[in-house]
Amino acid sequence: MDNPVPDYLAEVAEACASLTSGEPASYIPELASVDPDRYGVAMATIDGALYSVGDARHEFTIQSISKAFVYGLAVRERGLTEVLRKVDVEPSGDPFDELSLEDGTGRPRNPMINAGAITTHALVGGDGVSSAGRFEEIHRLLCDLAGRELSVDEEVWASEMSVSDRNLAIAHLLRSHGIISDSPEEVVSAYVRQCAVLVTAEDLAMMAATLANAGVQPVTGQRIFSGHQVRHLLSVMLTCGMYDSAGDWVSNVGIPAKSGVGGGIIGALPGQVGIATFAPRLDPHGSSVRGIETFERLSHDMGLHLMEVAPPARSVIQRSRVVGEGEEAVRVFELAGTIGFTGAERVVRRLAEEEPVERTIVVDLTHVSSVGGPARHMLLEALRRLRLDGYTVYLIDHDEVLPDPDPGDGQPVEQLQEI
Amino acid sequence: MDNPVPDYLAEVAEACASLTSGEPASYIPELASVDPDRYGVAMATIDGALYSVGDARHEFTIQSISKAFVYGLAVRERGLTEVLRKVDVEPSGDPFDELSLEDGTGRPRNPMINAGAITTHALVGGDGVSSAGRFEEIHRLLCDLAGRELSVDEEVWASEMSVSDRNLAIAHLLRSHGIISDSPEEVVSAYVRQCAVLVTAEDLAMMAATLANAGVQPVTGQRIFSGHQVRHLLSVMLTCGMYDSAGDWVSNVGIPAKSGVGGGIIGALPGQVGIATFAPRLDPHGSSVRGIETFERLSHDMGLHLMEVAPPARSVIQRSRVVGEGEEAVRVFELAGTIGFTGAERVVRRLAEEEPVERTIVVDLTHVSSVGGPARHMLLEALRRLRLDGYTVYLIDHDEVLPDPDPGDGQPVEQLQEI
Amino acid sequence: MDNPVPDYLAEVAEACASLTSGEPASYIPELASVDPDRYGVAMATIDGALYSVGDARHEFTIQSISKAFVYGLAVRERGLTEVLRKVDVEPSGDPFDELSLEDGTGRPRNPMINAGAITTHALVGGDGVSSAGRFEEIHRLLCDLAGRELSVDEEVWASEMSVSDRNLAIAHLLRSHGIISDSPEEVVSAYVRQCAVLVTAEDLAMMAATLANAGVQPVTGQRIFSGHQVRHLLSVMLTCGMYDSAGDWVSNVGIPAKSGVGGGIIGALPGQVGIATFAPRLDPHGSSVRGIETFERLSHDMGLHLMEVAPPARSVIQRSRVVGEGEEAVRVFELAGTIGFTGAERVVRRLAEEEPVERTIVVDLTHVSSVGGPARHMLLEALRRLRLDGYTVYLIDHDEVLPDPDPGDGQPVEQLQEI
Amino acid sequence: MDNPVPDYLAEVAEACASLTSGEPASYIPELASVDPDRYGVAMATIDGALYSVGDARHEFTIQSISKAFVYGLAVRERGLTEVLRKVDVEPSGDPFDELSLEDGTGRPRNPMINAGAITTHALVGGDGVSSAGRFEEIHRLLCDLAGRELSVDEEVWASEMSVSDRNLAIAHLLRSHGIISDSPEEVVSAYVRQCAVLVTAEDLAMMAATLANAGVQPVTGQRIFSGHQVRHLLSVMLTCGMYDSAGDWVSNVGIPAKSGVGGGIIGALPGQVGIATFAPRLDPHGSSVRGIETFERLSHDMGLHLMEVAPPARSVIQRSRVVGEGEEAVRVFELAGTIGFTGAERVVRRLAEEEPVERTIVVDLTHVSSVGGPARHMLLEALRRLRLDGYTVYLIDHDEVLPDPDPGDGQPVEQLQEI
């Protein structure tokens, strides 16, 4: 059987390819010369499957998409508290190259506008790092995310440097406020090099999938960000990634995203997929016209929206049965699915309501794929309370989805192999 | 066994009760007289379970929290396109009572600031509706959401009317731009009455749970909004609900929310829970101090954050086994859990890769709790393709999670009772 | 001989009449119906001569031009300190109907935008004055300034009241900040009536001439404002009178001015003339197109610009001669012209340098037309010092331009009739 | 006799010396080290007399005061039209180092904020001029204005260059908009050198007096700006020179002015005096505390305010008498004072009204000190019309205040020596 997913992508792509409005970025001479009609879409799952259509293997410069990853790197290296002292996380409602510095402090409004991105770039590397060393670290990060070695488009770098007055203005302004302390010329040069790293839509999809996968590269298995760092990064992408249309984007697409004037857009839906598009024609906000349409369709057609409500799950206690009889009778609760707070609440509620007459209770986790942190605490607490009520409790947990099952009373819950 | 969930809530509440900064809203004389130390928390699940601690049954005025629901009502009655012509959905970065009208058109920036809320209030009811009739509709909506009859605090209404110059200014300004056309005095009077509806934290939790439950009231089962309307409403709450700290809120809490100067805050996590807090001391943004802290802790401690990534689920194909032998051998795929796009992708990928030698394939949906719309299409398409490859396919689907299983080739897939 | 001044005005008018761009104010239905091609110019001197051409006797509504005079009235009644607490005097750079309230306090930026004008309107009249009584006072002021009874255009008033949402919004906003305390509806109604007072260009020229004449109506001789009040009022007109083009206006025209959407513009050049134009076609700022051109030409062609530097005056000591001989010889200094600080400085410098050998000094003021306050002090001080140096001093001052000539040493300077 | 003017200045200075609030500019290390209590006042008349008290001969850096003169230089070299394309003339309401660039074009709001001053600096010199050559021209201008050679404080220059990020940011921003085209580093370096030119309060008073004197240096007699250029420059100083308090300054002081963070303030009252103060303690706007107080007192006590209305002059026709009898009778009109448009209007009005029975008219200009351009035309026109009415006309004009008296009818008016 042929996998139908590429066919779905191709269908969406065909519908979007008809859009021919917008022009490639023209303020950077070298960017203006790209073929405006290139178009590629790629999607990577959190377990590393990769789908793509069109020009998804064509290289182009990553540009502002790098801002998201480098912000993550700054947070990883410096900690969120220190980074927040230098750059805020509020949507600015302004275009990407707007100054948008906080009155008085000069703190950029968020890391996705140029001022914020230059700031987070400059936060990378220890004190005293050279700008070359800083770029090296950033380059390493991007390669690790993509899972392959990426090169730099030296022509685009040189071209952008020839029109870098606005970025230099921003960098000088940041230094005047003490937000950065290094040479503005060197910072901008390395920042522009960061923007000139060459990627394909497939690379970007894999990089986005790393975010969707809570920071672990799906193919190489390398942990690049912690889950907590990713949660923060995706939050900032959601509110600030699409510049001055945060409300519109969250409402219409509902996927944390970031666009670049090179024509790329990435989106990462936590626990699900990383998506990337490449199409150089830009709208007046500097985002790819076909890219936006592609995301809207994928969100709408595939239900890939953060707010998409799965049809109410039936109880995660899939079955409750009695094995044996009389004094020997055992109550078996079969749980199923991925259990987070909400699922755990259902389990403990059921256990609290049921009060089985059998004196032995077995919780069967065979069909459970994972148990979140708070859910683990709640399940163990329920087991503890059942014991206090006089029950003898056992687990069936071949896959150790609930490892080290100590409810806190010093007596780990015993395992049964089967019942 | 006692349900431990109330204990968890009580623990969080105890930690937050120590916060004594902030003061009740003082610009409305009647509001200033509330007991500043009241504090209640309530949580309602999408299947109608309700937990609460503290003053969760104490009545207070709903105030700005009503804005979210009335916006939903306007969208339900007029359609999103017409509503967007009158009010935008972008975060304003401004305080709640800021004018924040779009240059030229006078369109309010979003429906959560007063200007936008007065506009959406005025959009309710057919043309020619009286302001009393409009209030009646809104009151009906709020009662339906709460699942009980709600009254109005006439003293608070009168008190707020005595200091309504700012709202009158806004309403006159809106009429000067043609955004509203009715008498500003009547619109403001009914709008202030909407804000004076009395609710408890338990009511609000249930109202929020209705949003978490895709628009269906968990207890009464009444469908109040469509899933699509809820998705849009939650998106707007996420970016605009907490006024000028959207980025901070999404990053720290990650729950679509709305606060009111009466001291309430609601949050709705799609597919999971509705949460409400009541604590009259407000921060300088006009949001409850203890309420915000409560949400931050619940989000952090319970993993109730939109971006919270569940640990990667194992394949939704839980088991693949062969029943029978030789020519009679049948390949059985057991699926499990809630299957959305991502899960369906895994299934079809596995089916595409495996190419079983057995000529009969059975897909067992016994452990599947639901199948989303796009997932349904993908599964059916996979079945169609398997047939094209020469396989005979069957479903086991006692609970009809995949009803009407016609892959589009005119031959519905046959059901087996067991295997 | 025919006076050539009307011919000069006619020449300027003819040049400006060719301008046909712009349209009459359209936001007030009644104003939109005026004949757009009416055009009149009037000029009044500070001694009451009146020149005019074209439709200078056609009545139209005074509109925003009233703001300047009513601001003066508020300052006259309340004192500048109290008025400044309610309205600032900084150019706003905003259009006339912009809100432009100071953050926090709600104080309008200046009295020439609507918010400031409504505020100063409401400051007129003692505490507890009715809105009718307040209008009566304002009407009285305008009649006194014009030197005749003025009526109100009730149609324009009613028409403007039918589209008064923006002004009502402003008034409510002002009351919400405690800037005004009366009923917004009554304040706006009386304010709009103030704007609907009917005047002609000739009236306005005379009203402006009253300001040019330091507050004394040139024809009736009534003192309406003190010199100090006028100085302040003209300063505010200069920086705020032409809305968002203060710099351009001061540079190109250099005459304190105020425009109204009825098509009028007034200008007052201190000590010289009052000018008024009437031409209903307005530019995008709401000022009369022909009116602005007329002012630019008058300023340029007639040298009527505040910064216009008169060719350096020769010494105000026009002649120094000796009368008599030997011991009887007397030194006579003949002064001439209007003597302010600068002139007085020249006189005292000359007296300090000269050290006449004659022991008697006569200062002849016959050709002096006036002596300003500081100049008076300086001249008297010089006379006192001459006495200290041993001179005997006399004045010739038939017109008493230096009345009560006591240098402070207790011995008034004696007068000579002639020499 | 001793000249009392220095005593007046000393009196004012003594009153202001008690002010000890504010601190010297601290953002430039070298400036922070000045003696904060230095205080000098100087005043120069348009005929070159110079008064001063206190530290008026102490050298300090000119800083932003140079902006006014360099703007004049740019206008002189490029013409106003070309300069306006690069920098506007509207008050910004912003602090001195605010960016305040026009949306879209990047044009600075006015030449008195840093962005505008850097722009006008860069406009000086022909195309291709080196930055050293540009500084040389500017230095020459400042020396010519002061009437002596001025040096540069190299320590202050180096100190300011070490904290020049904000100015570099502005310059890069300007180049990104195409407002300047030279190297931002070189432009800023030369601009900072312009600010580091050393002057004394006496120098500045003389420089200001050059503006008061319509562009002619009072002592050297060198014409530095045309009268038209000065009129424009003074207008811009009036509305933009004192940063964000234009309205307040015009109302309270009414003298075109410019302040610098070095502690200096200049003011120029057209046709009267140039004033300068030096006192390093600055208010939060960056203007000298004692300097502002000094200007307010001088304006108030000496009547040195643009809007100060001289007491209405008596008719400039000082005397009308008849000489001779019968057919030989001659009507003599004696004019007096400085005759501008207003004075000329009075003369021609009187001539038009009087219709003397004598057939010969003599206009005696002996007591007239000057006749402005438009006044000249009006007087000659009046003489022409008198001739048309049949009169024979003569002038007495020993000082040639009305040179080349040809009324346009081809017959120059004849002169009489006396009558």
Q: Please report the distance between the alpha carbons of the first and last residues of chain A.
A: 38 Å
Supply the number of structural domains of chain A: 2
Name the CATH architecture of the largest domain in chain A.
Answer: 3-Layer(aba) Sandwich
**What is the radius of gyration of chain A?**
25 Å
Oligomer: homotetramer
CATH superfamily of the largest domain in chain A: DD-peptidase/beta-lactamase superfamily
Structure classification of chain A: alpha/beta
Biggest sheet record of chain A: 5 strands, antiparallel
- Strands of the widest sheet of chain A, in order across it, are 2-1-7-6-5
Q: In terms of per-residue confidence, which ranges of chain A show pLDDT below 50 for 5 or more consecutive residues? A: none
Proportion of residues in helical segments of chain A: 40-55%
- Report the count of strand segments of chain A: 12
Beta-strand percent range of chain A: 15-25%
Q: What is the class of the largest domain in chain A in the CATH system?
A: Alpha Beta
Order of helices and strands of chain A: HEEEHHHHHHHEHHHEEEHEEHEHEE
Give the averaged pLDDT of chain A, no decimals: 91
